[in-house]
Amino acid sequence: MEQKAVNPNNVYGKTCHLESMPLEVFQKLGIQVNHALQHEGVSFLKTLPDKSIPCSFFDPQYRGVLDKMDYGNEGGRQKERALLMQMDEVKIGEFIREINRVLVPSGHLFLWLDKFHLIEGIKEWFKDTELNVVDMITWNKMRIGMGYRSRRTAEYLLILQKSPKRAKGVWCRHNIPDVWNEKQTNTHAHSKPIKLQSALISSVTREGDVILDPAAGSYTVMQSAFIEKRNFIGCDLVGG
What is the pLDDT of residues 127-163, one digit of tens each? Predict the structure, then answer.
């Protein structure tokens, strides 16, 4: 059964108070909004103003366990993922530093991880940033994936907040469980759960705010933003 988000009342109140840059500012800078753009992500981020975005998602394109564990059996979605251009650790760090720059104070980065990177550690990615780990959600995809021993059924979403770290007036929804059940419905190798992303967007932003995804893949973040009546800025190397 898919996860249902109900009763979004907040013990701290129902309004998010983070100030983000008005949509018109991005448009005046010539930045296309609410489009699936074909662009290299780091160079795209460099066009965005400092402290302009309240919320960003980032799903790094790495092979992770495919490379490090050498499974040798890449079928289905794994084969599709392996064909995509890979990011090395240096490139991932560049993305995260630029996201840190464009986030408003107390803004959030939702970072997707596989089990390998979760265990091995990723502290170097956040070097020289103001980002703090504040929570994590396990996405149960409700299907069995690959694995030599245990079979993969989950991905992990690390929640980071730019300093100053606070929840009151910033995180405005308290009914999201830390294990989220949602079937993977998109056939793209990087497809992510639209309902979970929608719930997170509604937790930390207001209607009309701009949501960022600089490595958009299947553009599920854009779909989630539209569901919550937010605007979207983002790109991918292969476009939408």
Answer: 999 999 999 999 999 887 776 678 888 999 999 999 9
Contact 182/193 with Cβ under 8 angstroms?
Answer: yes
pLDDT confidence of residue 70: 46
CB atoms under 10 Å from CB of 168, counted, come to: 11
Q: Do 202 and 3 meet the contact criterion of CB atoms below 8 Å apart?
A: no
Q: Please tell me the distance from the alpha carbon of residue 218 to that of residue 187, in angstroms, as a whole number.
A: 9
Q: What is the pTM of this model?
A: 0.86
Centroid of chain to Cα 155: 12
Give CA angle at 185 (183, 190), nearest 5°: 100
Helices (H), 13-55: 23-28, 41-45
Q: How many CA atoms lie within 13 A of 110 on its CB side?
A: 26
CA–CA separation, 123 and 71 (whole Å): 26
Partners of 133 in the β-ladder = 160
Report the CATH superfamily, name and number, of domain 23-236. Answer: Vaccinia Virus protein VP39 (3.40.50.150)
